[in-house]
Amino acid sequence: MILYEHLNTNDKGNLTIGGLDTVDLAREFGTPAYIIDENVVRKNCRIYKNAAIKYFGEDALPLYASKALCFTEMYKIAAEEGLGIDCVSGGELYTAKKAGFPAERIYFHGNNKTDRDICDAMDMGVGTFVVDNCDELYAVSKEAVKRDTVQNILLRITPGIDPHTHKAIVTGSVDSKFGSAIETGQAMDIVKKAIAAKGVNLIGLHCHIGSQIFDIEPFSDAANIMARFIAQIKEECNYEIDVLNLGGGLGVRYTEYDREIDYEKSIKDIATVVTEYCKNNGIKMPKVILEPGRSLVAAAGITLYTVGGVKEIPGFKNYISVDGGMPDNPRYALYQSTYTALIANRATEARDYRATVAGRCCESGDLIGENMEIQKAQRGDILAVLVTGAYNYSMASNYNRIPRPPVILIKDGKARIAVKRETYEDIVRNDVL
Ligand code: LLP
Questions:
Q1: Which is it for the CA torsion 187, 188, 193, 195, positive or negative?
Q2: What pTM value is reported for the model?
Q3: Cβ atoms within 10 A of the Cβ of 145, count?
Q4: CA 268 to CA 18: how far, in whole Å?
Q5: Within its chain, how far is the Cα of 122 from the centroid?
Q6: From 87, 278, 361, 362, active-site residue
């Protein structure tokens, strides 16, 4: 086992995922390629679903934060596993629609929904909008009134929590671009406006404090602050909040130096805070929604590359160049994220070489990781980067006009293409000649 149960080696010494030889997969589908073990995604969905119901009650619902990994088949998996989804753009909504995802289980997020987004989402019958700010509240209200309908909404609230993660992925602090802060009084203000507004039905509140968070404390603190705010709304406005969406953000183990997280226990701990607060303060237990993205899909995925060359700069560093890089995984460039890399065709050998794994873009920052522990490599080797299921494919670009890799789903010992490899023809498709 390498980091996770679905990653192993076989008697050829090759890395396997879900029991399939990654060197064979690289030969069959080419490189670079994203490989996702569907059984792992489904198992994670069930952990969340079961724990949410067990600890928060029958009404509780996990949503898949689909920004983490978005393509049609993923929405089908989330639907089959009985999850709702968090969509954040017209494109995600459109993909969910193509997948036939039940619209009433869609929660429409985003801090700047355009008029077109609002219309498209209402056309689709999206169940709940998560409204970010007053301008948006009135835009949603206006469109709903025009259609003579009432739209269920949650309000995005910033509880003012610093969750100790990379600053680019903190979202719940007072100065955040998201939501309205309790501390400044703006949260109560938008609650009152939402209660009074026509065409909208305020059913609940939402908060999301950030991503890749290992400690439970910031989640418990946020849950406590939100429960207190619900009590305050009841007192000040005589208004009952039915739904509390606590967002996503639980961390994922990317390397052996990261802690393992017990997701069921984390959910239990957060549930204890909410249930106790409600009990002690005489408020009705809200329907709780969780919104995991990364922790459902990250570990399920790996990326396979072919090594193009090895460059050793005496006294400085060693480079291993691969046939992908920041276009398929921008996370090192953006957040200096750490990953585990290995040579898939020599996976049983010790990772006793140190190298910076570089992509092939015309840019020095195009790296998968620096000074990584890996086996010695040579041109033609298959290099695997582990735990790339979240925020890799979904953040991929065509920088340097590099086509995006395919997404291959593995299930019960079989591999199938879920997203085709882009072609050069795809790259020029929208160019006007
Ligand atoms: N809910 C909301 C409103 C969110 O904004 C996010 C993530 C989630 C749920 C899911 O959070 P998760 O469980 O995946 O941590 N691109 C960055 C991560 C950005 C997260 C954005 N929001 C990365 O690659 O680390």
A1: positive
A2: 0.97
A3: 15
A4: 29
A5: 24
A6: 362
Which amino acid, residue 325? G
Report the residue among 67, 205, 219, 245 best suited for mutation to probe ligand 1: largest number of ligand atoms under 8 A from its CB: 67
CA-closest candidate to residue 333, choices 273, 397, 284? 397
Q: How many Å apart are CA 76 and CA 269, to the nearest integer?
A: 30
Residue 298 CB–ligand 1 contact under 6 Å: no
Q: Ligand 1 in contact with 64 (CB < 6 A)?
A: no
Burial of 279 (0-12, 13-18, 19+ CB in 10 A): exposed
Copy the structure tokens of residue 140: 């949603």
Q: Where are the beta strands (DSSP E) in 76-120?
A: 84-87, 106-108
Helix, strand, or coil here: 305? strand
Q: Which helix (H) or strand (E) holds 29?
A: helix 22-29
Distance in angstroms between the alpha carbons of the first and the last residue of the chain: 51
> What are the tens digits of pLDDT across the range 180-233?
999 999 999 999 999 999 999 999 999 999 999 999 999 999 999 999 999 999
Rounded CA-CA distance 305/385 in Å is 8
Instruction: For ligand 1, say whether the CB of 86 is within 6 Å of any of its atoms.
Output: yes
CA separation, residue 58 to residues 285, 288, 385 (Å): 12, 10, 38
State which amino acid sits at residue 380. Answer: G
Instruction: List, for residues 285-320, the tens digit of each pLDDT value.
Output: 999 999 999 999 999 999 999 999 999 999 999 999
Structural tokens at position 155: 């309000």
Q: Which atom of ligand 1 is nearest to the CA of 212?
A: 15
The alpha carbon of 210 and the centre of ligand 1 are apart by a number of angstroms equal to 7
User: Is 362 marked active-site?
Assistant: yes
Give the HSE-up count for residue 326: Cα atoms under 13 Å, Cβ half-sphere.
18
